[in-house]
Every structure is written in structure tokens, then in C-alpha cells.
TrEMBL record, chain A:
It is an enzyme of class 2 (transferase). Residues 13-240 form the ABC transporter domain. InterPro entries: AAA+_ATPase, ABC_transporter-like_ATP-bd, ABC_transpr_LolD-like, CP_lyase_PhnL, P-loop_NTPase. It comes from the Bacteria. Its EC number is 2.7.8.37. GO terms for molecular function: alpha-D-ribose 1-methylphosphonate 5-triphosphate synthase activity; ATP binding; ATP hydrolysis activity; transmembrane transporter activity. Keywords: ATP-binding, Nucleotide-binding, Transferase. It comes from Oceanibacterium hippocampi. One of its GO terms (cellular component) is plasma membrane. This is Alpha-D-ribose 1-methylphosphonate 5-triphosphate synthase subunit PhnL.
UniProtKB/TrEMBL annotation, chain B:
Signal peptide: none annotated. SUPFAM superfamilies: P-loop containing nucleoside triphosphate hydrolases. CDD domains: ABC_NikE_OppD_transporters (cd03257). NCBIfam families: CP_lyasePhnK. It comes from Oceanibacterium hippocampi. This is Putative phosphonates utilization ATP-binding protein PhnK. It comes from the Bacteria. Residues 10-256 form the ABC transporter domain.
Automatic annotation (TrEMBL), chain C:
Pfam families: PhnJ. It catalyses: alpha-D-ribose 1-methylphosphonate 5-phosphate + AH2 + S-adenosyl-L-methionine = alpha-D-ribose 1,2-cyclic phosphate 5-phosphate + methane + 5'-deoxyadenosine + L-methionine + A + H(+). It comes from the Bacteria. Coiled coil: none annotated. This is Alpha-D-ribose 1-methylphosphonate 5-phosphate C-P lyase. One of its GO terms (biological process) is organic phosphonate catabolic process. InterPro entries: PhnJ. The keyword Chaperone does not apply. The lineage of its organism: Bacteria, Pseudomonadati, Pseudomonadota, Alphaproteobacteria, Sneathiellales. It comes from Oceanibacterium hippocampi. Catalyzes the breakage of the C-P bond in alpha-D-ribose 1-methylphosphonate 5-phosphate (PRPn) forming alpha-D-ribose. The gene is phnJ. Keywords: 4Fe-4S, Iron, Iron-sulfur, Lyase, Metal-binding, S-adenosyl-L-methionine. Residues 285-306 are annotated as: Disordered.
Length: 240, 262, 306
């Protein structure tokens, strides 16, 4: 991404002047301002961890970067293939295209159709990107194996899995397709140490491949292992 | 981005439909991209079903226009730009309509295979073996037992009837499918299976779809984008996850907050 | 007893207008017939009248005949190919009374043949009129019950549904089992019900030199196939149209090319096959043809009823 002077500094995602206020109409129209005038950017190969006290809007920022939440002001520019797309104003189908090929998101909870088999869930982003079924399944199997999910579970739907197992399916789903920008919301929250280390490895590998990563992570060890830089939330700083 | 991605397959411009003093749809505008699944959500009486009828060529609006991009000829005003036989031809060759009640979308006096085959014969198929082969293929695709191909759909369960209705609509490889509460009358366990099937088939075939539902969970699983209707107006529009996770209009917030989280 | 089918022209019963219907009604029906001839296969609604016979006894055909018949015509009436069944006898008697026209059992002598369920075996010629009695004029009715919709299907030539019926036949019986009222396309435009004639007779309808008029009394529809109009029986590429055939020949006249009726002769299940067209059978026997049982039956009255 080029700055005003035309210099490309490797930035792949840049938010500027972001503002977000929730208006709760069902509760008498109460307004909850989360942030305003927020600037944020991340470069290829860099991992930025959002930091600040709980409730300061880390998740809101991350969801805004994914265009899951709509911002009231500002721009969210992302390098999508050979162009820059502003996710704050892009039409729906363009946002979906960016998500399909450029911008990945691992949320805290797995949300899937009840009946679909684990391996198919993990392979789905690869299939959506046009990778053939066999190759997609190979990659999915490889990831699930690395994350120590027993292969007897692969053909089952994850609805009945434990929290940790579901989280690993979620991570495999998020990492299956190598995307230039990856948003990770508490990726290791319910994992044991061994699997935590696998996730750290996956993040390291993604960085080496040039992915820009934005993470929310309360675990200090993991944070220290992955973060190149901390982004202090404006609200978090005020409170500190 | 290719040019095809840019041209909407369906565009709706300030459509209004009244019934006497009642305004069922008021000034509705939106567009649908090729390959996109658009959900129309809202409570009963919000004008969803009337809008679907206007969009699918069975109810002319009093104001505004619905433009559909024909496969070979580009965009036409559905009502003023096409004659009735042209519109009916379009409905047979490029569209599918899935009704909430499968009895409205199936011929109960005709076998399952005949129900699927009818769509092919309606566009000129005159080889019995090929019609039957295609009917069998689609029975399999919607996970119906091939051994039931000559049975009447009246003997099928609700879920099976609904799958048959999908097969009957998808067999002609439509470009646009209209669905009205497609999982409405079904048990929850049957719903999940059908939803998975619908999602898989629409994605695989790359069909565009307009889905009317009051069930936000169904909308989340199937729709790329949502419009929220209230009293005949569109009150909110956006990506499905935007509208459901960050609704901004008071009515959308009420709608979302009224649903039990699963 | 032998029924007298041949009668000379006589004076009609003066109580009635010629051919029973008033002139205004006949003109109305003739206009409908002309329209039907102009649009072959298209069902023209007409203001059908009450006739002195119940619906189902050929009131549609009778009104058509009444509208076209003149004092010089020679009328033949058949029911299932036979001139001597109740329906045929009473219709013939009706027209003799209200028109005084000559009647005949011989196809070749008739100028108008009113029929229920058969086309005569002997080829009709130019100038002859075949009037069909039609119970259900709409071929799509069994599959599409909505009248407004069937009209659109005809208007826009959307006839895929008719093939669904044939599909169902093959799926169920392995072949197109529809054997009468077999749907046809007229002039490559309108789908038409040929009335409950056996499909055996369908090939006689196409490019025929005679005029074919169809009258449906209950549903008040008239349609027509003008001379030399194409009439094609619907089928599938891999299940082409074919007609019934028999291993037997007519027991009386030995015909191998006519539509045969199976007649049960006794309680022991003895049966025989005879021509459904009584006139054709008689002609052949008069010309010296003899079937396997023809010698013994030579003096018996012709027809399917022993």
C-alpha cells in the first residue's frame, strides 16, 4: 500500500479515522461510543496484537476490520489482489470477494451448519477459492492432524465436540487457505499447551509466508511469542 | 473483478405494490449480483411474500421496475419489457421457484421422476431415456432414494417433498431461484440437512437466489446479504453477518434481539 | 332381425325447424365451425343448446351435424364402429325425423358420418365430413385442472405437460399405454384430443382429404381438422408412436388391417375377434373374403354383438 508520497511500505491493511458507536434502540436509544478517530495499520509479515483492558473495544475493532461491524466514519483500506479496496464503503459482493481470497478471520466461536463433517468444514475455504476437492481435503487433513484432532472425528460434524476440539476445527478452517491478512480472536483460549504451540507455529509460518496478522490474545506467553508489535487501544490507554 | 461481477442479474428500482389502501411494498430498491444469495427477512405481513411475487414475475407492481438480465439478451424490464409468453419462457428456462408448501410446487398426481422431468420436457426434451436419466441423477443429488422415482410425492415426507421440489427446480440449471420459507414446515433435524443441501447446490451451480424467510438462522446459513423489511419498506440492508451481528435500525435490532441464541 | 340402416329421403316432421335447431343457432354454430377450420385444432367456444338427448349421448356432435346438414345429404352414424347400436340408431332416427335425409350404413355412400369412438376403415374422400362426438375436449385437463392455465398453455404453445403424461405411462408400463384419445398436434400448432378414438385411427387423421369436425356438447367447444392438415401423434424419440396390432385376423372377413373387437361368445370363455367397423366387414364379406369362422357365421348379422 502506498502512502501519500507514493512510497510502498508493505502495509496491506490500513484503517484511518475509524469511529464506532453502538446505538441500542431496544434500550431507549442509549449510545455506547467505542472509538473515534482511530488509526491502525499492519504490514505484510507482521503480527500486531491488540491490547487494552477488557471491554475497550478490541473485538469491535477486529470485527470492524473484517467488515462484520459497520463503522460510522473512516476508511479500511486493504490490498486485495492488485487493487486497494475500502471495506468501509465497498459493496457486499466485493467484501465477500475480499474475505474469500484476501482476508481471513478466526472468531472465538465456530458457526457452521449442524450436519457438515469436520473435514468438509475445514476444506470449505479452499473449495470456495477454486481448489479441487482432493487437494482441499489433503490440506484439511494435514491441518487437523497437526492440531492433534483424532482422525476418527474428521468425518463427524463438530456439534458434539468439546470446546477445545471445536476451537481447533475453527483454527484449521481459518488457516486452511493462505490469505494475505488474517484476523485471530483469542485463537488459543481453550487449548492445552501442546496445541497452543501448534497455533504459534502456524502463525509463525503464515508470517514467514508474508501474511499480515492481527490478533487478540490474553495469554502472555502466546502474545510474547507471536507479537511483533502491540497496538494499544485508545480506550485502553485512557483507562490505564 | 470481471465485468460479469459488475452487472446485477436482477435490479429493483422503487417498486411499489398496493392492494387497495394497503401498501404491501413501498419504494423497494436493491440489486442482486450473479451468484449471490439475498435474504429478505421480516415478520409476517412485512411485505416479503408480495415482494417475492413481484420479483418472480407473477404480480406486476403499480410503480417502479424490476429489471432482469436475460442470459443472452441482457437486462429487460420484467413487466413492460417482456411479453407474457417471453416472461413464461424465462420462468421455465432460467428460473426456479421453491414454495414453502411443497404441494404448491409439485404435481401430486405425477410421479417423483415425472415432477423432475416435467421441467425438461417443458423446454423441449423428447427423449424418454434422457429425461429419466436426468430425473434419476437429481433424485440422487437431493439424496432421495432412486427406488422411489415412480412413487407419487404424496407418499413422501415433508422433507422429501421439499428436496424433490429443489430437484425439480434445479434440473434445468437455473440462473435465479426464488425461495419462500423453504424450510418452513420442517422439523429442525430435517431443516439442517436441507439447508446444507441447498447451500451446497446453490454454491456448486453458482445460481443466484432470493430467499424469503422469517428465520434468521436460516438467513445466516444461506444468504450472503440481507434486506430487512418492515411495513413494506426496506429498513436495513447489508452483508448477512453485518445485519445480524451489528444491526443499526431499531426494527432490525428488535428482530435480532428477539431470537434465542443457539 | 336386421336393423334397417338404409332409408330413402323422406319428408321431415314439420313440427320442427329443419334439423331441429333454429336458423339463428345454426348460423352461430357454423360461424364457430368456420373459425375452428381457420385455426385447426383450436377449441372454439359456442353457445351450445339443450338437445333432446342427455349429455354424453353425442349432443355436441349432433349440433355440429345439425348445423352442416342439408336435405340432399346422406347420413351415416356409428358408435364404436357399428351402425346398429342404441346410440347410433337413436341419432340416426332423430335426424331422419327432423331432416328427412337419406341414411346409410355404407361409408362410401355417406356425405356426413357422425361417429363416436371410431374412424371408418374405408378411406373417406374429399367432400365427406366426419363429425366426432367429444366428451372431454381439453387434452391437458387431466394434468392441469385450471381452465385459465390450459388456455395459456395453448395460447403460448406450452405443451411439455402432455409429454409428462406419456412419461408417466412409460415409467409405469414400460411403454406408452395410452391407447385411445391419444394426444395429437394439429398443423404443428395446437395440441388436440382426437376424442376417445383408438390410437389405431390416429394415422387416418393426418393429411386426410375429408373434413373433420369435433363437437363437445357438455363443454360447448367445437374444433376442426380441415382437409389435408398435418396431424401428428405425440411421442418420444426413443418411444415412437405406434398403433395397436393383433395376432388374430377378423373371424368373419379375415381382415388383418382393421381394428378388431374381442367378443366373448360363451361362459366357457370362447371368444373371437371381429372388425369393429361393421360396414367394412360386410363389404369384405360381400366381396368374398372369409375369416376363420366366417363360413358358419355367414348368415349372422354383422357386428360385434353375436
Amino acid at each position: 500500500m502506498k502512502d501519500a508520497s507514493g512510497i510502498d511500505d508493505g502495509t496491506v491493511l490500513r484503517a484511518s479515522g475509524l469511529a464506532k458507536t453502538f446505538v441500542l434502540h431496544t434500550q431507549g436509544g442509549v449510545e455506547i461510543p467505542v472509538f473515534a478517530g482511530l488509526d491502525f495499520s499492519v504490514r505484510a509479515g507482521e503480527c500486531v496484537v491488540l491490547s487494552g483492558r477488557s471491554g475497550c473495544g478490541k473485538s469491535t475493532l477486529m470485527r470492524s476490520l473484517y467488515a462484520n461491524y459497520r463503522v460510522d466514519a473512516g476508511r479500511i483500506e486493504i490490498r486485495h489482489e492488485d487493487r486497494i479496496v475500502d471495506l468501509a464503503t465497498a459493496p457486499a459482493h466485493e467484501i465477500l470477494a475480499v474475505r474469500r481470497r484476501t482476508l481471513g478471520h478466526v472468531s472465538q466461536f465456530l458457526r457452521v451448519i449442524p450436519r457438515v463433517a469436520t473435514i468438509d468444514i475445514v476444506a470449505q475455504p479452499l473449495r470456495a477459492a477454486g481448489i479441487d476437492a482432493a487437494a482441499a481435503e489433503r490440506r484439511a487433513a494435514e491441518l487437523l492432524a497437526r492440531l492433534n484432532l483424532p482422525s476418527r472425528l474428521w468425518k463427524l460434524a463438530p456439534a458434539t465436540f468439546s470446546g477445545g476440539e471445536q476451537q481447533r476445527v475453527n483454527i484449521a478452517h481459518g488457516f486452511a487457505l493462505a490469505r494475505p491478512v488474517l484476523l485471530l480472536d483469542e485463537p488459543t483460549a481453550s487449548l492445552d499447551e501442546g496445541n497452543r504451540n501448534v497455533v504459534i507455529e502456524l502463525i509463525e509460518e503464515a508470517k514467514r509466508d508474508g501474511a499480515a496478522i492481527v490478533a487478540i490474545c490474553h495469554d502472555h506467553e502466546v502474545r510474547n511469542a507471536i507479537a511483533d508489535r502491540l497496538f494499544e487501544m485508545p480506550g485502553g490507554r485512557l483507562a490505564a | 473483478m470481471t465485468k460479469d461481477d459488475m452487472t446485477p442479474i436482477l435490479s429493483v428500482d422503487r417498486v411499489t405494490r398496493r392492494f387497495g389502501d394497503l401498501v404491501a411494498c413501498r419504494d423497494v430498491s436493491f440489486s442482486l449480483q450473479a451468484g449471490e444469495v439475498l435474504g429478505i427477512v421480516g415478520e409476517s405481513g412485512s411485505g416479503k411474500t408480495t415482494l417475492l411475487r413481484v420479483l418472480s414475475g407473477t404480480l406486476a407492481p403499480q410503480a417502479g421496475e424490476v429489471r432482469y438480465a436475460l442470459r443472452d439478451r441482457g437486462p429487460f424490464d420484467l413487466y413492460r419489457g417482456l411479453s407474457e409468453p417471453e416472461r413464461r419462457w424465462l420462468q421455465r428456462t432460467e428460473w426456479g421457484v421453491v414454495h414453502q408448501n411443497p404441494r404448491d410446487g409439485l404435481r401430486m398426481g405425477i410421479s417423483a421422476g415425472g415432477n423432475i422431468g416435467e421441467r425438461l420436457m417443458a423446454v423441449g426434451a423428447r427423449h424418454y431415456g434422457e429425461v429419466r436419466g436426468a430425473a434419476g441423477d437429481w433424485m440422487a443429488k437431493v439424496e432421495l432414494d432412486l427406488g422411489r422415482i415412480d412413487d407419487s410425492p404424496a407418499e413422501f415426507s415433508g422433507g422429501m417433498q421439499q428436496r424433490l421440489q429443489f430437484a425439480r427446480n434445479l434440473v434445468i440449471q437455473p440462473r435465479l431461484v426464488f425461495m419462500d420459507e423453504p424450510t418452513g414446515g420442517l422439523d429442525v433435524s430435517v431443516q439442517a440437512r436441507l439447508l446444507d443441501l441447498i447451500r451446497g447446490l446453490t454454491r456448486e451451480l453458482g445460481v443466484s437466489a432470493i430467499l424469503v424467510t422469517h428465520d434468521l438462522a436460516v438467513a445466516r446459513l444461506l444468504a450472503d446479504r440481507l434486506i430487512v423489511m418492515k411495513d413494506g419498506r426496506v429498513v436495513e440492508e447489508g452483508l448477512t453477518d453485518q445485519v445480524l451481528d451489528d444491526p443499526t435500525h431499531p426494527y432490525s435490532q428488535l428482530l435480532v434481539s428477539s431470537v434465542l441464541q443457539a | 332381425m336386421t336393423l334397417v340402416m338404409e332409408t330413402e329421403r323422406t319428408a321431415p316432421d314439420e313440427t320442427y325447424n329443419f334439423a331441429y335447431l333454429d336458423e339463428e343457432t345454426k348460423r352461430m354454430i357454423r360461424r364457430a365451425i368456420l373459425k375452428a377450420m381457420a385455426v385447426p385444432g383450436y377449441q372454439v367456444p359456442f353457445g351450445g343448446r339443450e338437445m333432446p338427448l342427455p349429455y354424453g349421448w353425442g349432443t355436441g356432435g349432433i349440433q355440429v351435424t345439425a348445423a352442416v346438414i342439408g336435405p340432399d345429404d346422406v347420413l351415416k352414424v356409428i358408435d364404436q364402429g357399428a351402425d346398429d347400436t342404441t346410440n347410433a340408431v337413436s341419432i340416426r332416427r332423430f335426424f331422419r325425423r327432423v331432416t328427412g335425409v337419406a341414411t346409410t350404413g355404407r361409408t362410401v355412400e355417406a356425405t356426413i358420418v357422425q361417429t363416436r369412438h371410431r374412424i371408418p376403415e374405408s378411406a373417406l374422400r374429399e367432400g365427406q365430413i366426419l363429425v366426432y362426438q367429444v366428451p372431454i375436449p381439453e387434452p391437458l385437463r387431466r394434468i392441469e385442472p385450471r381452465e385459465a392455465e390450459t388456455r395459456k398453455l395453448h395460447a403460448y404453445r406450452e405443451y411439455g405437460l402432455m409429454h409428462v403424461r406419456l412419461y408417466e405411462d412409460i415409467a409405469r408400463f414400460g411403454r406408452i399405454a395410452t391407447s385411445y384419445d391419444y394426444p395429437v398436434m394439429v398443423n404443428e400448432r395446437y395440441l388436440m384430443a382426437p376424442s376417445p378414438t383408438p390410437k389405431f385411427d390416429n394415422p387416418k387423421m393426418t393429411a386426410a382429404p375429408f373434413l373433420q369436425l369435433f363437437g363437445a356438447g357438455r363443454e360447448k367447444r367445437i374444433y376442426a381438422v380441415p382437409p389435408y392438415t398435418t396431424v401428428t401423434s405425440l411421442d418420444f424419440d426413443d418411444h415412437p408412436f405406434d398403433v395397436q396390432s393383433w395376432d388374430e385376423v377378423c373371424a368373419l372377413c379375415g381382415a388383418a388391417d382393421s381394428f378388431l373387437d374381442e367378443v366373448v361368445l360363451d361362459d366357457a370363455g370362447k371368444r373371437m375377434f371381429v372388425c369393429s367397423d361393421t360396414d367394412y366387414c360386410e363389404d369384405r364379406r360381400a366381396a368374398g373374403h372369409v375369416g376363420p369362422e366366417g363360413a358358419d357365421e355367414a348368415d349372422a348379422p354383422a357386428g360385434k354383438k353375436p
